[in-house]
Design brief:
By secondary structure, the chain is an alpha+beta fold. Among the domains are: 131 residues, no CATH class; 90 residues, no CATH class. The chain is built from 13 helices and 16 strands. Strands 1, 2, 3, 4 and 5 form a five-stranded antiparallel sheet that branches. Strands 11-10-9-8-12 form a five-stranded antiparallel sheet. A four-stranded mixed sheet has the order 13-14-16-15. The chain is elongated and about 80 Å long. The two termini are 34 Å apart.
Length: 417
Amino acid sequence: MKKSIRLIATLLIFVLFSGCTLPWDDSLPGSSALVVSPASSGTLPTGKDACTAVEQRGDYQSLPNSRCRQMYDKLLSCAQQITGKKNENGYLIKTANLLTAKLSDEETKRTVMAFFNDNPQIFWISNQYTYTFTLTGTSVQLYSRVTAQERESLQKKLDSIVNQIMKGVTRQQSELEREATIFNALADRCTYDNAVSADSKQQDWQPYTAYGALVKGKAVCDGYSRAMQLLCGKAGVQCRLVNGSAKGAAHIWNLVRIDGKWYHFDATWMDNNVRIYDYFNVTAAIIQKDHKISPVGGDSSDCNFSLPAADSMEANYYRKLAVQVSALDRANRLRIARALVKAAQQKSTSIALHIDVNLPYNSTLNQLFNGQPYFFQSCVQYANSALPEKERLSYAAMQYSTVAAQGGVSVRLAYVN
């Protein structure tokens, strides 16, 4: 489900900036003070710079017993083996047989669910499956939506996009910086697919997958969260799926582990006209203000496995990666302007600010954008003085959104050209 801005109008305020001229009230150093390091060359990191990929096995670890984990391993080994036979569910995949252990109905369903949840890279498998029991064993039949040849072609396209994104991710970055790089790359590439409906899930399967989000550039919440999980794994960051609902509709988002602590992360609801960071590494208490987490246990498709606690804000985006605004003074103007220059050089679509907890949020926000001396406008003007004409920002076309509870402001950048 895509987050509707109108539904949270009490938290988000969108304002078209005025085009007023700022009376400069103090002098600032020359544009050389705004020089920032150039962007990376865009080559795929290798050796000591490359991230060590991790497998996402959170739900595997939560399976109730070793028999379920054995079946999970069987499913994983069979997933690539698409046969030429097809029925109403799709192309048959080699049957996963666990001949020495009979699972219960619930154990079988939970095992298949864990397999789907942990493996976003296996995007071609249909959500339809069948299973049978013998006196001593269990067999699970999966189905592919495409032929073996088609799968290989699609896989190459996905691998190409993933490699492009991973060019901007290195081991030298913190886990939080890798997460931010991944999210921004995903949001730059993908938009929410409003045309998809629940009734068309079988026909329009791609928006529910990492392939749809990254290659086709269209996805629903399933696709966003699975793409995030796939990319996090490549970057060495643990990431899980969370089933739940929002505004009365089924919804999926992520849990991400940064420096040993888990955080809720909802890529779908942050990828709006104004890219916001309101759901970037927040606690369970915050996410549950407008999300409902499905219960743990059971074999329904919208239940959860055991989820780790998420009670820290240490790696929250606004607190750690946004431009920190501690006062409306010369030093902070320079700090914001430098961030704007860097964003413009990288053709970023947004920038985030964090208003210090010791500042009154609403009045500081008003001074930034809505009243004399239009502090943020002065930052844009100063940044433009250091930018070539083709990279300059258009203050009059910018928009912003706010989240007072986190002291955050997200600004949608606009460019003159």
